[in-house]
Amino acid sequence: QVQLVEAGGGLVQPGGSLRLSCAASESIFSLNTMGWYRQAPGKQREFVARIDSDGTTNYADSLKGPFTISRDGAKNTVELQMNSLKPDDTAIYYCWAYHFTTYWGQGTQVTVSS
């Protein structure tokens, strides 16, 4: 059983930045894939970004550029740097991992508003 705990959400103005982190109970390098999804009010959960065990990254087409996913081995976390945030980025952001099965964190709220 892999436990995931997100941190770093909050309120930010349009054009601002936030950095989310996801701490895992297992070594992040032992998991096949980790990443982020988000769910906006009234919408389905959607893919944001992923990073595979070999370091390969993949992004939703509309988010590549302003969002960057990375790993911090010292902290055992997967990070999501979000720049140029827009009100449409308002959502609950969920950390996920795949290792024989899928694991989800509880989510962290990101609100982009002036």
What can you tell me about this protein's structure?
The chain is mainly beta and 114 residues long. It is built from no helices and 11 strands. The chain has strands at residues 4-7, 10-12, 18-24, 33-39, 46-52, 57-59, 67-72, 77-82, 91-98, 102-104, 108-112. The strands form 2 sheets. Strands 2, 4, 5, 6, 9, 10 and 11 form a 7-stranded mixed β-sheet that branches. Strands 1-3-8-7 form a 4-stranded antiparallel β-sheet, with no helix packed on it.
Helix and strand arrangement:
Layout: E1 4-7, E2 10-12, E3 18-24, E4 33-39, E5 46-52, E6 57-59, E7 67-72, E8 77-82, E9 91-98, E10 102-104, E11 108-112
Parallel strand pairs: 2-11
Antiparallel strand pairs: 1-3, 3-8, 4-5, 4-9, 5-6, 7-8, 9-10, 9-11
In short:
This protein is mainly β. It is built from no helices and eleven strands.
Key attributes of the depicted protein:
7-stranded mixed sheet, 114 residues
What structural category do the secondary elements indicate? mainly beta
What best-fitting shape do the alpha-carbon axes yield? Answer: globular
Amino- and carboxy-terminal Cα gap = 40 Å
The number of distinct helices, counting runs of at least 4 residues, comes to: 0
**Helix content class:** under 10%
Total DSSP E strands: 11
**What share of residues are in beta strands?**
over 45%
Radius of gyration: 13 Å
What is the N-to-C succession of helices and strands? EEEEEEEEEEE
Biggest β-sheet description: 7 strands, mixed
Mean pLDDT: 95
Low-confidence parts lasting 5 or more residues at pLDDT below 50?
none
